[in-house]
Write a structure and sequence with these properties.
371 residues; alpha/beta; Rossmann fold; 3 domains; five-stranded mixed β-sheet; five-stranded parallel β-sheet; binds iron/sulfur cluster
C-alpha cells in the first residue's frame, strides 16, 4: 500500500491553465509577467531533472539536498517556495523552513516511484520482524528520497538520513553504531555503497515487503550485515549491463559515468559512479573533446550536452530514461500556482505535521553532523 500523501496536508488540488484559455506561448508570457509581479516574495526551485521550460523560471537549480539546504537559509522576505520537483523534496523544504514559508508543489501528482516503494506500515512491520531475529543492534538509514514518515521513523530509532553524495559517510557512521544496517528504500544505492566500503555481497540480504517476513528467514537476518529494502528508481533501473557492453564495443575511449541508483552490474561496469552533483562537476571539469555516456535522467543529460557543446555527451541508454513523475510539473501548472499566490489563496501547500517534523529533523541533523 502506498502512503505518499500520509503527511501531506494540502489545500485543494488545482487544475492547470487550460489550452482553451492560453496557448503554450501565452502561458510562458503570462508566467514571466506574474513571476515578475510576485518578486522576492517567491523563490522558484528547479530540480536538475526538470524540463527546460521549467528550469527557465527557476531561481535556484540543484539536487534534492542542495535545494533543501537553500530553503533553510531563505530570508524572512520570502513567503513562498514554488518547488518544481517531487513531493518528498517539498516535504523536506517545509521541515527545514520550520513552517515559516509556504511550500507549493504545482502538481500534487509529482511523486517519486522509489519513495513510494516504502511506507510506514511496511517499515514498522519489517522492523519488528528484523529486531526480533537480529543478534545485535540494527541502525536504520534512509535515503532522502522517501516520505517524511520514514525520515521520522529513522529519527525515532537512532538512525540517519543520507543522500547519494554522502551515503558512504552516513553508512560508515551507521555501521559504527551497531552490528547491522537496515537501508531503505533504494536497494541499489545501499548495495553499491556498502560494497564500495568493503562489505561483500554475501553479507547483504534483500527484504521484500511484498513477501511474508520480507522473504527472509530468521537465520538470514541473523547472519546478514546489511538488510536492503526492495526498492529502486524506475528511471535509473532502466540502464542495463547491455548498454555498457554496447558503448564499450562502439567507442572504447568514451567515459561511462552513472548514478549510484543504477544496478550493481551497471555501476561495476561503468568507469565512474556518483551523485547528480558529482556527475555535473566531473563533466564540467573535463577538458574539451571529452566523451561521455551518462547513466542518469534524460533532461539532465540533454542539458549538459547543450551546456558543453565542446564535449560529446550522450545518454548511456538509447531509450529516453525520463522521470515521468517529475515531468508532471509543467508551465501550465506553475502558472496556476502563481495565480493562486497572487490572489492570496495559495493551493497545493505542503505541510508536515509537528510530530513527524520533530523526528525527521533529528535524523537530518544526525546526517549533517556526520558529513
Ligand atoms: S529519478 Fe527516480 S528517484 Fe529521482 S524522483 Fe524520479 S523516480 Fe524518484
Amino acid at each position: 500500500m502506498i502512503d505518499i500523501y500520509s503527511t501531506l496536508k494540502s489545500t485543494s488540488h488545482i487544475a492547470p491553465v487550460s489550452e482553451k484559455e492560453l496557448s503554450d506561448d501565452e502561458v510562458l508570457k503570462e508566467l514571466a509577467a506574474v513571476r515578475k509581479r510576485l518578486g522576492p516574495r517567491v523563490v522558484v526551485y528547479g530540480h536538475h531533472y526538470q524540463q527546460d521550460d521549467v528550469i527557465a523560471f527557476a531561481d535556484v537549480t540543484g539536487d534534492s539536498l542542495e535545494l533543501a539546504r537553500h530553503a533553510a537559509k531563505l530570508p524572512d522576505s520570502t513567503e513562498y517556495i514554488v518547488f518544481c520537483g517531487v513531493h518528498f523534496m517539498a516535504e523536506t523544504s517545509d521541515m527545514l523552513t520550520a513552517g515559516k514559508k509556504k511550500v507549493i508543489l504545482p502538481d500534487l501528482r509529482a511523486g517519486c516511484s522509489m519513495a513510494d516503494m516504502a511506507n510506514r506500515r511496511d517499515i514498522d512491520r519489517a522492523w519488528s520482524f528484523l529486531t526480533k531475529h537480529s543478534v545485535g543492534k540494527i541502525t536504520p538509514i534512509t535515503y532522502i528520497n522517501c516520505a517524511a514518515t520514514l525520515k521520522s521513523f529513522v529519527g525515532e530509532n537512532g538512525g540517519a538520513i543520507c543522500t547519494s553524495s554522502n551515503a558512504e559517510k552516513v553508512i560508515t557512521w551507521g555501521l559504527s553504531q551497531g552490528e547491522k544496517l537496515l537501508f531503505f528504500p533504494d536497494q541499489h544505492l545501499g548495495r553499491n555503497t556498502c560494497f564500495k566500503l568493503g562489505i561483500p555481497l554475501s553479507e547483504m540480504v534483500v527484504y521484500d515487503p511484498r513477501r511474508e517476513n520480507g522473504g527472509l528467514t530468521a537465520e538470514q537476518v541473523s547472519k546478514a550485515k546489511v538488510i536492503l529494502w526492495y526498492g529502486y528508481c524506475s528511471v535509473h533501473q532502466g540502464f542495463t549491463p547491455e548498454h555498457i557492453t554496447m558503448w564499450r564495443a562502439k567507442d572504447p575511449t568514451r567515459t561511462l559515468i552513472v548514478h549510484p541508483e543504477c544496478s550493481f552490474e551497471v555501476t561495476q561496469g561503468a568507469d565512474l559512479a556518483g551523485s547528480t552533483s558529482y556527475i555535473i562537476n566531473h563533466i564540467k571539469a573535463a577538458p574539451a573533446g571529452s566523451k561521455f555516456a551518462v547513466g542518469t535522467e534524460i533532461n539532465l543529460v540533454n542539458r549538459l550536452a547543450a551546456q558543453f557543446p565542446d564535449k560529446d555527451i550522450q545518454s548511456l541508454s538509447p531509450y529516453q530514461c525520463l522521470c515521468t513523475t517529475m515531468y508532471r510539473i509543467r508551465p501550465r501548472w506553475m502558472l496556476e500556482s502563481f495565480r493562486a499566490i497572487e490572489t492570496g489563496e495559495p493551493v497545493n501547500v505542503i505541510r508536515v505535521d509537528e510530530e513527524t517534523r520533530k523526528w525527521s529533523l533529528l535524523a537530518l541533523d544526525r546526517m549533517l553532523s556526520i558529513v
